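Q: My labmate handed me this sequence with no annotations at all. I'd like to see what the chain might look like in three dimensions before we decide whether it's worth expressing. Could you predict it?
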Amino acid sequence: KIIIKKIFMLTNEKIGEDCTDFFKAAYENRYTWDKNFSGYEGSCTWTDGEREVKGSFCLGQDLKATINQIDDEDIHKAISSQLWEVAIHRVRRSFEQTHGKNTFTFGDTNEIGSEVIVGGKNEGDKYRVKNDVVKMVYRHIHGNLIVILTKEVTHTGNGYLSKSYSSQYLDPISKKDLKGRSFFNDDFVPLYKGGPWVLSSRSIHQESLEGSIISKQKFSFSKLKSLCSNQD
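A: Here is what I predict for the chain of 232 residues:
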């Protein structure tokens, strides 16, 4: 504990200093697909622990998902949404494209990581970074405040993917919970040797504001195949 406190004290001496390069290193350490991503297809399964539904899917180069053999509209939409949500975060955009109108300064440091305070276009947002991994996201999106905490990541050898994390929606004014937290656990696999890493399973459980589990879902994706024939 004494050693940890010393590290925090040394790092906290940087409070208020520019940390653009520090945050940029973590941003560029995220795993993204290259521009030649061609899309992929496979089988999909949804379950809530009591009911199981199976079908097939295709995610195109345009990141639009097509779900087949699933008639339940809610499940159809849920599978499509998960595929899109994962895919949209794999799009490669330069740091300047995403954050060119922002500034970044050090805040404090705790066990989660070093705080990155955003100024400029997205003033009011914050992050925490540790070992070139974004461990906390605190962002204002579409009138809500969302907080994402990452506990575990998958290292692909070409950037990291979040594996175990939680998300929480807060009122941007009062900072009170709008609904309970959601917890995610993701597994990824490469489509083929040297190919893009894609989602193979995602488990989600949502808690009530009181902390009890109110829903569970698991999405599984198998028999995965690139839409590009070159898989050597």
